[in-house]
Each structure stands twice: as C-alpha cells, then as structure tokens.
Specification:
The protein is mainly alpha-helical and 153 residues long. It has one domain. It is 64% helix and 3% strand. The chain has six helices and two strands. Helix 2 (58-66) packs across helix 3. The longest helix is centred in the first third of the chain and has 33 residues, at 22-54. It is globular. The model is unreliable at 9-18 (pLDDT under 50).
C-alpha cells in the first residue's frame, strides 16, 4: 500500500489513511486539555481553602469519615479505589520504573493535584496520539518502518 501525499498512518489503522476527523479530534483534545487546566487550578484553590480552614492533617478527616460506614465512607472508598486504579495505570504506563512507582504514589497521595497535570503533560508528550497517551512506554506506532521491530516479537 502506497501512502498518499498528506496521508497519515493512524496507530489503530491497518495502513496509511487520511483522517477527515483530525480537526474535530484536535478540537476535542483541546477541550480536554482546557478541562485539565481548569480542574488543576480548581483543586489547588479548594485545597488551599481546606488547609486554611481545617489545617493540613487531611488523613484524620478522610479515614475518620471512612470508619463511619455511611455515604461519605462509601464515596471515600470509591474514590480511593479510583486512585489505586490511576496509580496502577501510571506505574504501568511508565514501565514500573522508580519514576513510575513514584508517580503512582503521588497520584494516590495527591489525587487530582498530581493526576490532572500528569495527564496534561502526557497528552502533550504523546502529541495527542491516543495510543501513545494510553500505553506510554509500551506504545509502538505502527508504520511501515517499524512494524518488524514490534516488542511482541
């Protein structure tokens, strides 16, 4: 298959194709990036107000609420499990290296204060490529030049 001029090899495709939705995709990626910027600023502002009003000892509030076994404990448990899932993905995405484990730990302790900027930087480094974004170091962009050098072989 010969690539047409201006065609791009998409990671999920079988060969070079033109992508008529590329402009729409880049617009929605921009929306996600702006949402992540807004979310990062919002969580830092709320955190500053929480520290000023209740102090820095958040584990007392968090785990104290979990022991009550009410709706707040259900929400906190659900949130904690989501943080563990995010930490596992980040650690795996980084190849279970020291950096990956550190980033996973930070995503559990800091939540969105670390996770939102991490995903924002990951989108930038992946150049908005969904395969690179989700797979991290496990990503192999499929092009005629590197199909033979797949890590699965």
């Amino acid at each position: 298959m010969v690539a047409q001029k201006g065609a791009r090899v998409l990671p999920w495709s079988l060969g070079p194709v033109t992508d008529p939705l590329m402009n729409k995709r880049s617009i929605s990626v921009k929306n996600v990036q702006w949402f992540l910027v807004f979310s990062t600023v919002a969580i830092y502002v709320v955190t500053v107000f929480a520290i000023l009003s209740d102090g820095f000892n958040w584990p007392v509030f968090y785990f104290g609420d979990m022991l009550n076994l009410d709706w707040r404990s259900q929400f906190n448990t659900d949130f904690l499990l989501h943080l563990f899932l995010l930490a596992t993905w980040i650690s795996w995405r980084e190849g279970f290296t020291i950096k990956g484990h550190l980033f996973g730990f930070l995503s559990i302790i800091m939540g969105g204060m670390f996770g939102f900027p991490y995903i924002l930087v990951a989108i930038y480094k992946a150049q908005c490529d969904p395969q690179k974004l989700l797979l991290g170091v496990h990503s192999v962009t499929q092009s005629p030049d590197n199909i033979e050098s797949s890590p699965n072989k």
